[in-house]
Structures are given as C-alpha cells and as structure tokens.
Amino acid sequence: MLSYVRRKGRLDDRYKRAWQRYAPDFLLDINAGEGSLDLKEGFAFNAGFVRRSWGNDHPLVIEIGTGQGENIIAAAEEHPEVNFLAVEVYDPGVAHTMLRAGKLGLTNLRVAQINAPELFSVCEPGVANEVWTFFPDPWPKMRHHKRRIVQPALASDIRKSLGEGKVWRLATDIEDYALHVHEVMDGRADFANIGTLAVSLPTEHVGKGTADEAKSLPHADFREAERYDGRVLTNFEKKGLAAGRVIHDFTYQAV
Fold it and tell me: Active-site positions?
C-alpha cells in the first residue's frame, strides 16, 4: 500500500527553469524511468554510491518527505560537513528544494524523487547517520490509517540503514498519528525510545470527523522527545500551532 497519492502538481515557469538548471546537480539518477517513482533494477544505496554522488565520505542524513525542503536546506546550509538527502515524490516540492539549494550554492544536498520504502529496502547496513520524518501525511480517515508511512516493514529497513546508536527522528501534530508511532515503534527490540517527556494519549484510535471523541477515551502515558533543535519552524508547523495542535516529537535510537 502506497503512503501517498501521486499528484503531479503543475510546475510554473520558474520551477520548470529551476528543474532544467539544477536537476543535473541535485537530482539523483536512480529512477527506473522518466516519471517513475520506482528504483532502477539492481540499484543499491551503499557507501560507494554516496561517495560517487556527494564526492566524500561525510555522515549522511536522509529526510523522508521533505515537502518544500525548508528543514533539510536549513540543515545543509548550517552543516556543510554533513551530507543530506531529500526524499520527496511531488514535483513542486522537488523543484522548490532544488531551486533554493541552487541559489544557496549548496554542495552537500541531493534529492531523490523516489518512493521512500523502496529506497530504504536497498540501503546498505549503516549507510545513514540519521533519518528524519517530520509531519508525514496523517491519512486521518480510519480506513486510510494503513497508508501511514510509519510501518513495521519500513522501520526494519530504516534500522538496517542506520549504524548502531544512530537515530530516527519523527514529528507530528496529529495526536492519533502520535499513538500510531508509539504502537509501531515502542515495542521493537531494534530501536529504543530515548524520549524523556511524559505525554498522555488516548489508547484507542479515532478518525477524521471523530477526533473530538479522543478526549473521552481511556488515556495512558507515553514517552516522547523534546523538540529537536535541528528542525526549523516551518510554515506547516506554524499553522498546526495556530490551530491549537500539540507537536509530538520522537527520537528512536538504533540498538
């Protein structure tokens, strides 16, 4: 089951020019074909590929679902000693990320327009230093919860991609998605929840149109993380805060 609906999104002339100018510098050539979100047959994401694509052996941070690229561009600008990979499927987000990265002259950022679970399924053990998943699509309807990107299979592949002691950072402003993350991640033997904040959450799921019912459901305490300092306050997060939603941060360490 895919965690996204393929929306091409119309590229305006500025984005078309950006794509033409910057794709050779930033966009990884790993897709099965033009317009495909599948990987080339036989592709392996390993240290050799990183060395060829970035030109060095610096630590690698991968962000799943970069949107407009606000977080990963800010991080890449602040940390030139780290390699960053933006994984995004939607054309406008990819174009905007390349445009901003190009204007800033970033050399440590690359973009993969690929289905993230496919990419992680071919990752070499320990190739990534950190993985980020900030504000993934909540799929609020109950029947769509199975499409949420955080799933046991992806967690296993992300653990493989991370060296021991490295981390997967997540954030959501949807309470029900926070419960979903805990259900998928907290019982795993290959990740440790290293959050120190006690957060009360309902122990049953709600869907779109029934979220208000969560207040009357049984609650339990869960451990979550302090806000990650390396995450910039994006317009998306600002809207969530303005709407009165609580931001849930998670840090899971590979063990």
Answer: 137
- The residue type found at 182 is H
Q: Roughly how many angstroms between the first and final C-alpha of the chain, as a whole number? A: 28
Compute, in degrees rounded to 10, the torsion defined by CA atoms 123, 120, 84, 41: 70
Q: Nearest to residue 251, comparing CAs of 134, 151, 173?
A: 134
Exposed (0-12), middle (13-18) or buried (19+): which is 192, by Cβ within 10 Å?
Answer: middle
pTM: 0.94
Structure token pair of residue 15 = 């984005």
Comparing CA positions, the residue from 120, 113, 67, 90 lying closest to residue 6 is 90
Question: Which of 228, 231, 229 has its CA nearest to residue 70?
Answer: 231
Residues 6+ apart with CB under 8 A from 91: 8, 9, 11, 15, 113
77-136 residue pLDDT tens: 999 999 999 999 999 999 999 999 999 999 999 999 999 999 999 999 999 999 999 999
Which tokens is 40 given?
């080339």
